[in-house]
Amino acid sequence: MVSTDTAAWPAVLSVILVAVATLGVGAVGLRLSRTTSDFYVASRMIGPRWNASAICGEYLSAASFLGVAGLVLTFGVDILWYPVGYTAGYLVLLALVAAPLRRSGAYTLPDFAEIRLASRTVRRLASMLVVGIGWLYLLPQFQGAGLALRTVTGAPRWVGALVVGVVVMLNVVAGGMRSVTFVQAFQFWLKLTAIAVRVLILAVAWQSDGAPDPSRPQLPTVREATTVRVPDTVRLRVDEAVPVTMRGTLDGVRVDGPVVLETGRRVVEGGSEVTLPAGSVVPHVESVRAADGATWSQPLAGAGGRDHPTYRLYSLLLALFFGTMGLPHVLVRFYTNPDGRAARRTTLVVIGLLGAFYVFTPFYGAMGRIYAPDLLLTGRTDAVVLLLPSRMLPEPWATGVSMLLVAGAFAAFLSTSSGLTVSVAGVLSQDLLRGRLRSTVRGFRLGAVLAVAVPIVLSFATLRTSLADTVGLAFAVAASTFCPLLVLGIWWRGLTKAGAVAGLVVGGSLASGAVLWTIVFGARFTDAATSVGSSPGLLGALLAQPAAWTVPTAFAVMVGVSLLTRRTVPKSVGRTMVRLHTPERLVLDRGPSRREP
Amino acid sequence: MAAATRPPNRPPTREIDEQTDIGEVYMRSLLRAQLRRGLTVLAVVAVFLAALPVLFTVEPRLASVRILTVPLPWLLLGGSVYPLLLAASWWLVRAAERTERDFAELVERD
After folding, report:
1. Could you tell me the CATH number of the domain that includes residue A522?
2. Is B26 among the domain residues?
3. How far does A97 lie from chain B, in Å, by closest CA?
4. ipTM, 2 decimals?
């Protein structure tokens, strides 16, 4: 008999350990950070390896840790494009943005906008976008933390979100960027070690179990009798009648004992418990179609029942390729490089480190299909990584690996949200709160509190989008706004203020419109965590993966309006190009350098 | 005597600083070299990545090929894409640094 719970105390212990370690490492950095410049960019004294570890530490978020594995379990091989795209985004960043952006001397994206276009309006617009994208990206981190803590301890969802939020706030408010750099680098190596060790242990367990093939040609089947708790009401699609034991409410009728789930649509109310007998096919939530092994393991076969898989795949790839450069917490790291050359080398190391991490993630999804297919009943497949140890290992191994997992997951939540919080707080305090507070450091702290509080409150509202999907939406918004601004701003002299404003407004509103529609209304069509984009038809696919049409539109508008207003090209553009593209060691006039904030 | 009427040979850095036409030529050649290389590498990688799903759709039998029990699509997407990305970036970094070195030597001569 398998149940969803493991003992709570080891998990609680590892959460506490990670939190204390994070605060401890942060405190070491705190002694070193005294001036405002330390707060923002760690005085630009950090070498490529530290910097790259730190970038990876905050980039590898809950989405890559839990979300991708969950999606692989449901949708199969097509999901492997997510990590590929997460990594390839850095190649685009390296080829087009890294060195010039560092040389621009900008601290934040709004700074870059102002330096390049000499416009307060573009700056303000960019600030609002940074805050919006930052919140959109923080939301799944807090949701994920809640989910993780509930999965391993049964604590209500808001507890995990609050724990992560408070630790991040303390750390960022006290230490600023320097300490965060150390923390992030530390977190990356913790995560990489943790995932490698776990995969090794689980792989041994899988081998000694006779190495069952996750893609054997059949529907997801539980191996042993499995009890599933259904926290929220779900509508099930039952393809094959299953005799189960149930305590709860089925199709509006109280049941306590054996009952047969007949084929068709069935409604299981929240709070019910369903025990599936060994060897039975798992009934899926309505939004997910059960996929046999061949469909699941073949590209573009439409496993899981999302329509238009080809469009979705290419649009997603576009969002991930071009969205990475527009993520505020990634870009802020580039200002901590000493020069443009170091910025490039940092990016190179990042690509290597990310690859080393992502080769491990598909394994979890594949194991999930064998050992935890019952998650498809509730659709909460984001929990798969956390459940596997208790399903695959004997005690005390299960508890040990579980602790490592929870520690790794919380490290991921903490590091990503710290990075995001620093950048959102920086922009909030520099641009949107400026003038209201006399002290910059105090402004930064107030910014940090705001940056964390808003998405925490949002995460209490139970949005039913899967983690990796919400993150994908943040990428889509970034790709439709900051990507054209950066690429055109760096390589094309003809970009004007009016063009930038028009492109940001059009790209930003199209992409965030699609995102809002998908999050708010898309979920009404379905029951569960797999809901993003399961609203029917081509329109649903277009809105769930908007990048394929919003990114070209934003580029076209930015170029078109700039051409129409070409007489307003800023006079400083020649000087700015010298600054962006020439190596620092050349003695050249690069225009007035920015004062430190 | 004709040589004496030509303006004195000025260092290219000054041409760039004064934003003369010659300075512009230096800058444009630098930008063009870096941009062209960046876009070429991206195009090659993008075509390779975008072609993978098409390949498996056109030739479904490839998808069922297994290497050491791992199906080919899983192996390609889950593993061998990453060394490729790393190699492309390594080459890009080296080439970009070389271009900058050449540019520096070019404009620093007197």
Report:
1. 1.20.1730.10
2. yes
3. 10
4. 0.89
